[in-house]
Amino acid sequence: MAIEDPCALRRRAIATLAARGVPATVVGDAGHLAGVLDIARTGQGVALLAAVGPAPDGLTADECLPEVTPIPMSALARPGADPATVEAAFAAVRELLA
Predict the structure, then answer these.
(1) How far apart are CA 3 and CA 34, in angstroms?
(2) Which residue, 13, 29, 51, 78, is the most exposed by fewest CB within 10 angstroms?
(3) What is the pTM of this model?
(4) Apex CA 70: angle with CA 66 and CA 72, to 5°?
(5) Per-residue pLDDT tens for 71-82?
(6) Is 64 helix (H, G, I), strand (E, B) or coil?
(7) What 3-state DSSP class applies to 86?
(8) Which whole-number Å values give the CA distances from 25 to 9, 17, 30, 46, 68, in the listed order?
(9) SS3 3
């Protein structure tokens, strides 16, 4: 189960498994993270998640799978966005990632 393409985490997970010779098949797509999490909670699949905060309820790390090299994260504001709103949103993300 994976987020529909294009998804950086989906591509990273598949590439990491392939590079380590671990067979993987995406058997379904979800339009939202909630769908991926629901399938992982049932034990019918796994999910590569951003490492921010604790794992979602009902999920634990699978130590049998290979480590995935982190990828950089970036955030951009749309042209014309309110500068105060943009700064508040960016500050919230910085705090979350700290």
Answers:
(1) 10
(2) 78
(3) 0.64
(4) 160
(5) 777 888 999 999
(6) coil
(7) helix
(8) 15, 10, 14, 11, 17
(9) strand
